[in-house]
Write a structure and sequence with these properties.
7 domains, alpha+beta, 20 strands, 55 helices, about 1150 residues, about 10% strand
């Protein structure tokens, strides 16, 4: 064997039980816990079997049955239990089996555990069912599919097996030899693979197994038989996704494994192989690992560990791989931040490494370092630092050291209230109403089927007998608790559904006591039905960390307040809802928060105090003081005054102290440094450590941290944002783990518009397949954009909401935009108006690029794509085919700034180009209107939107409808290049005289609202001025229902026609939503209409969340009311959308 490298942590953790350094088996002290796990998990397993010899069994297994078998060490019965448990372990993880094997080995010895597993291997399943196990069936290898995995019960025995004496092991092998005729070959192979000392058995099986059997054993059987490495590894592919095998092979063969791994890594980007390569300290391994990480994000964590262990080797490997090129753009983006971090952390050692690199690589390193900002040579002295960095508050004293503690303070009893606001209570009731047990006495019958000793009539009468009701609830809870935890799902369902349909008094008491803590508890429906009377159940649901904040916001009760404070502090996705609850119910909030806020120091105290300070900043400081005065304890008002007057710099988590450390990815030596506004000097690394701590806890706080505000005031904004971006890149290069995601979320506190653009690009990169960007990680980016809150950040969110390949990401972006609109008191479409950026254009919608002796005017086409015209005597000349490039005669500084400006303009314009025309087209289809003032501000006179306004026909909304049901217009007009409103005859529209007209509203004119003469006249004007419309408006196809269709509730025009999946997915961009019936497939599209009505288009067999799928057969367009009642424009647009689907 050649030298064996040290195992990386991922492979160390993957070592099979019994290997040196692997996790040891449980100790005897764990016996009570293991026994309880077995009894809880196994109490309801169905162990019925047909046996060749008499054996009395109870069906199903009871706790007493199982306890007796365990105490007697009845390995036949326990083997039956293991076989049934194995049969139920669909994912390959067998928790019951693991616990039982550990318990047997510790309580009765390794021999007993081995015998139970041996008996388990004799049981086989009948075909066509999973409930019956037999020993007299033909031998079948299929029953042992999971037993070669390192997490099976047999592998757990291995940890005890290696500690057993030789005689015990020999006796066990002898008993297996005796039972060989009753064991499938695969079962014998599992024992030979897992248990050391059975190499002879493994060799026999290799010689006698069929090709199919040997293939199913994979490389494990040759390994157990002691075959040479080439026979075990083959072409390398048998090692893929087998970290446990790679770990033992690394130990056994060391450097001999490297050529196999290098070849395998060149063909497959596999995380397990990457971790194996990370063990080797060779240039070839480091470069191969870098290439794998560039190709697949799943390998980046292994690369991060390797370069952390061997920075010089990693630096040279990354430099060479980046120099060679040929990497995907996303791959290079993953490697560059790591190289930049290494370059900074190497310090003086970097100069010694550079001569070993080619001139091209040295230039690349120089470019990266230049982009990072050359390392400053002069730093700000300590007396120039922001005071919070020079003397961090957590190094001075504890946050709670000088505050009063009032233990045992009781919560004031403020009567609960409810306030549903604009929400319709019936909506929640209808949404959560169960769809079964709605027939008379059906709920009572379902309960009695699960709870013996009660009759349906007795249950129906419980509301008249309170004592019996409490006994019934106690009996149900006892029966439910006696059920195996993984068998309670149906019981949970019966509990909640029955509670809904039982007599109201009984159902509410039942749900409050035992239903509200269950999965799918339908909390919204119960709270909507019963209001504050359902408070006990709501509190139980909140205590179980359920997602009930969506309905808790309608209920005012002091006991809800601590849950809201926790959500504000620790649950970013619930934070906005919790903040609104505080401001909505300040009296109840203060009453519920004061006991914890003035109580024992700890996390709950900090959460409550933070929530009270937020209330005070929201204008409710007097409410806080008023509630404090209601307490009998006279110390409470004084304590509250001290809380409100507390130095905000002391508002940091108790876990932060003078010796607090930052994560391993914190390597600021190679990062750009924050620079002071006053003199431009950079902050040294000593000042950055407290800044890193601040960023970490401020990212988790809804109000941020006052100390960070002081740093922002003292530092240049872009340099601070660049510094935090480098932290984020380092975190991503280290694997982007959840515990360090503050590195990303802190950008929401210090980011700039440039940061928002980068975050938008990050979402697009992480949304690509194989990028390593999960929906959870992308959700962190969306949270960061929402917190950043600038117009450019919201513009990025809007783009993501409209166009992202991951449905959950789009939905989250929509929710963030809705949250932003609510915080600004706007509707969603009103927020969209404000998201259109001006891009730094002048009031005429243009921009001048100054190259010194040359100038260029920027304009926009009908798709909002920017183009350039050379300035001739101060006026725009001919349009250029491409953007201008600097010449030697240009002013170098001005030309560089102009090129950068046009590049940023194109980037922002690309983000909004598809959004704005589509938004206006949807406004036309839905009849959305603007007040005149808003139309001028956000469209006609907006620097960017005016380019679209000039290419469309607008209307002044009138009163009533014509005979077709089409909304009338008082007038129609277009916006001229000079900003005038002109009609079809090019006469100025009198309304555009600057006078106020609050009643007038502007719409995008639909062709149904225009006469043929108006359409012809406006078309001629656009042709004369060479204006192309951004979407089909004037010559748009229009549709009307036939007389026969007007009386029908559904349209069958397209029934039986075939639609391609792509256009069906694209309906979402036109305002349709995805509907799903049973099975989760997208099998109907629906569109919400005013008045609560909907249109629904059926198709089949259905599409799944892959963005593709097979051709679909269209069904009817369902309305549910006479089609003649449908708005004429809505009908026309719906038909146009569906006509575009029906390809054949």
């Amino acid at each position: 064997m050649s030298g064996a490298p040290a195992l990386p942590p991922e492979l160390q953790n993957a070592l099979p039980p019994g290997e040196p350094g692997a996790r040891p088996p449980p100790r005897p002290a764990a016996l009570p816990t293991l026994r309880k796990r077995v009894l809880d998990k196994g109490g309801e397993y169905w162990v019925g079997a047909l046996l060749p010899e008499p054996l009395s069994l109870q069906r199903p297994a009871t706790r007493a049955w199982l306890e007796g078998a365990m105490d007697a060490a009845d390995t036949r019965l326990l083997g039956l239990m293991l076989a049934r448990s194995r049969q139920q372990a669909y994912t390959g993880y067998d928790d019951l089996g693991d616990a039982l094997v550990h318990w047997l080995a510790l309580q009765h010895g390794v021999g007993a555990a081995f015998d139970a597993l041996l008996h388990a291997a004799r049981w086989r399943s009948e075909r066509g069912g999973v409930s019956t196990l037999r020993q007299d069936l033909p031998l079948d290898d299929d029953d042992h599919a999971f037993w070669g995995q390192p997490q099976s019960p047999l592998w757990q025995l291995r940890g005890h097996w290696v500690l057993a004496d030789a005689d015990t092991r020999a006796a066990c092998i002898g008993r297996m030899r005796e039972l060989e005729p009753q064991l499938p070959l695969m079962a014998r192979a599992r024992f030979a693979i897992v248990l050391p000392g059975m190499s002879a058995v493994a060799q026999e099986l290799l010689a006698n197994g069929t090709p199919g059997q040997l293939e199913r054993c994979g490389p494990w059987l040759p390994w157990a038989a002691g075959r040479p490495l080439p026979e075990v590894a083959g072409n390398g592919e048998p090692l893929l996704d087998r970290p446990a095998l790679l770990a033992v092979l690394l130990r056994a063969h060391g450097d001999a494994l490297l050529p196999i791994l290098l070849d395998l890594g060149s063909r497959h980007q596999n995380a397990a192989v990457a971790w194996a390569l990370a063990a080797f300290d060779t240039p070839e391994a480091a470069e191969a690992l870098a290439r794998m990480a560039a190709a697949d994000a799943s390998c980046i964590k292994a690369l991060g560990w390797a370069v952390g262990e061997r920075p010089e080797r990693g630096f040279l490997a990354l430099a060479r791989v980046l120099e060679d090129g040929g990497l995907p753009k996303a791959g290079a983006a993953r490697l560059t931040p790591l190289l930049k971090t290494l370059a900074g952390s190497l310090g003086e050692r970097l100069s010694a490494l550079l001569p070993a690199l080619s001139p091209a690589v040295r230039r690349l390193i120089g470019t990266i370092l230049d982009q990072a900002g050359s390392a400053p040579t002069v730093f700000a002295e300590r007396d120039r630092w922001p005071a919070v960095l020079a003397a961090p508050p957590w190094t001075q004293r504890s946050a709670d050291e000088q505050t009063l503690v009032l233990e045992g303070l009781l919560m004031l009893d403020v009567p609960p209230e409810e306030d549903w606001g604009d929400e319709i209570r019936e909506h929640w009731v209808a949404r959560d109403r169960p769809y079964t047990m709605d027939k008379p006495m059906e709920a009572e019958q379902a309960v009695c089927e699960r709870l013996h000793g009660w009759t349906p009539d007795e249950v129906a009468a419980l509301h008249t007998h309170p004592q019996d009701l409490q006994r019934f609830i106690a009996d149900w809870q006892q029966a439910h608790d006696g059920t195996a935890p993984d068998r309670r799902q149906y019981g949970n369902y019966v509990t909640v559904a029955a509670a809904w349909f039982l007599p109201p008094a009984t159902g509410l008491a039942f749900w409050n006591a035992v239903g509200s803590g269950k999965p799918e508890s339908r909390t919204g429906g119960f709270v909507a039905r019963f209001g504050p009377a359902a408070l006990p159940g709501l509190l139980q649901a909140l205590a179980n960390d359920g997602d009930e904040h969506f309905v808790a916001r309608f209920i005012a009760a002091p006991r809800i307040a601590p849950f809201m404070a926790q959500a504000i502090a620790r649950r970013p996705m619930r934070r906005a809802s919790a903040l609104r609850w505080l401001s909505r119910f300040p009296q109840h909030a203060v009453a519920g928060l004061l006991p914890a806020a003035l109580g024992t120091p700890g996390e709950k105290r900090q959460q409550a105090r933070a929530a009270l300070r937020i209330l005070a900043t929201q204008g409710h400081a007097e409410a806080v003081r008023t509630v404090a005065r209601l307490h009998a304890d006279t110390a409470v008002p004084a304590a509250v005054e001290a809380l409100l007057a507390e130095d905000p710099l002391q508002d940091f988590p108790s876990r932060i102290h003078a010796r607090s450390k930052l994560p391993a990815f914190w390597q600021p030596a190679g990062w750009r440094k924050p620079r002071l506004r006053e003199d431009g000097l950079a902050l040294p690394d000593e000042a950055l450590h407290p800044l890193g701590l601040m960023l970490g806890f401020a990212a988790d706080s809804p109000q941020g941290y006052a100390g960070l505000d002081a740093v922002r005031a003292a530092c240049d904004p872009q340099s601070l944002a660049d510094f935090v971006w480098d932290i984020c890149e380092s975190w991503e290069a280290a694997g982007a783990s959840a515990p360090g995601n503050w590195a990303l979320r802190a950008l929401g506190l210090v980011g700039t518009d440039d940061t928002a653009r980068r975050l938008g690009a990050l979402v697009r990169r992480w949304s690509a397949p194989g990028s390593g960007g999960t929906a959870t990680r992308i959700g962190w980016v969306l949270e960061t954009l929402a917190r950043l809150g600038s117009d450019v950040a919201l513009m990025q969110l809007d783009a993501i909401a409209r166009k992202n390949r991951i449905a959950s990401v789009r939905q989250t972006a929509v929710e963030k935009l809705a949250q932003a609109a609510a915080e600004r008191g706007l509707r969603g479409d009103e927020l969209e108006d404000r998201l259109a950026p001006d891009l730094g254009l002048d009031e005429r919608g243009s921009l001048l690029l100054d190259f010194g002796p040359r100038q260029f005017h920027v304009g926009f086409d009908e798709s909002l794509v920017p183009f350039v015209r050379e300035s001739v005597e101060g006026r725009p000349g001919a349009r250029l085919a491409t953007a201008p490039r600097p010449r030697a005669s240009d002013d170098a500084e001005l030309a560089a700034a102009a090129v950068a400006r046009f590049k940023a303009l194109k980037q922002d314009a690309t983000t909004v180009a598809a959004q704005q025309p589509l938004r206006l087209e949807r406004a036309m289809a839905t009849g959305r209107s603007w007040p005149v003032a808003d139309f001028r501000r956000f469209i006609a006179e907006h620097p960017l939107m005016r380019h679209l306004a000039e290419r469309l026909v607008w209307g002044l909304a009138g009163d009533g409808r014509d005979a077709r049901g089409v909304p009338l217009l008082h007038a129609s007009f277009r916006v001229s290049a000079e900003g005038e409103w002109v009609d079809a005859d090019e006469a100025p529209l009198p309304l555009d005289d600057g006078s106020d007209n609050d009643a007038a509203r502007i719409v995008v004119a639909h062709p149904l609202q225009l006469s043929a003469a108006q359409i012809a006249a406006f078309s001629q004007q656009f042709s004369d001025y060479e204006l192309i419309q951004p979407f089909d408006q004037l010559h748009r196809a229009v549709h009307a229902p036939s007389d026969e269709e007007r009386a029908q509730n559904a349209l069958s025009r397209w029934s039986g026609r075939i639609a391609r999946p792509g256009p069906l997915w694209a309906l979402e961009s036109r305002g349709w939503l995805r509907g799903r019936d049973g099975g989760g497939a997208y099998d109907y599209a629906w569109r919400a209409l005013p008045g609560g009505r909907t249109l629904a288009l059926r198709f089949g067999p259905g599409l799944h969340n892959a963005g593709a799928g097979e051709d679909q057969t269209l069904g009817v367009l369902h309305y549910g009311h006479p089609i003649g009642e449908l708005d004429a424009i809505v009908f026309s647009e719906a038909v146009r959308d569906i006509d575009a689907l029906a390809a054949r």
